[in-house]
């Protein structure tokens, strides 16, 4: 039994006449009559009464037509669902990210992706770079945003593209002596209590700070350790000291704080987006397309690394 048999039976029931049903289907009447007869032999029941007034479903035919109509509807839905999945309009995307990525660029990327692909289920996981990279390599994530590219066994099978360049920025309370300064120097930082990140990504940032302040910098030994950039800004607003974090902190201004550049300018690890080079998931493809359109400066690099250039 094929889908065409179901369509033929439904057309015959609608038109109550072999000739009219055949014309609606775009076939000749003899093939239609033969297909209906074959269908009745296969079901083992007479599905239609042939009378002078027309062709009408029997009780068995009525029961058959109910199921036939549902089956064709399900087949149409299956085709539609398959098409949506193939276009990346449905499915699942598992994204791991460091907290600072929520300042930029994830708000714009996720907002746009959610509006354009509401049928894709987003599973979002905030995690440190090391754990995010390990989860991506293990297949537990589809894409990860980390500080610096993933490293270690399996990282060679990932495509990694910088999505944000950053440098060290200072943040203080509006009442702090440094408030209003366009920049603060290393000597000024050494004379103030500091607030720095203490999460699992801290070693990479701490290494940059040690280069800036010196290996034996007492200022770092006595620094207040904050969980993330939001806590750094909150503690700075409370007057706990000079907060040091990525320049993307400026994307989340809050009352009572001021930002200053740190001189000399100190680069921080890039924000890097990574995914498995063999992953052909339509949902991932749709997400990467959103990244291209939302972050034009990333698109060319992403295409080169993914082999599309």
From TrEMBL:
Q: Which CDD domains match?
A: PBP2_LTTR_aromatics_like (cd08414)
At the top level of its lineage, which domain of life is listed? Bacteria
Keywords linked to the UniProt accession: DNA-binding, Transcription, Transcription regulation
| A Pfam family matched in the record | LysR_substrate
This entry carries the following GO cellular component terms, namely: protein-DNA complex
- State one molecular function term (GO): DNA-binding transcription factor activity
Every copy of the HTH lysR-type domain together lies at: 1-58
DNA-binding as UniProt keyword: yes
InterPro entries to which the protein is assigned, alphabetical: LysR_HTH_N, LysR_subst-bd, WH-like_DNA-bd_sf, WH_DNA-bd_sf
Record family assignment? Belongs to the LysR transcriptional regulatory family.
- Name-wise, this protein is DNA-binding transcriptional LysR family regulator
Name its species: Streptomyces murinus
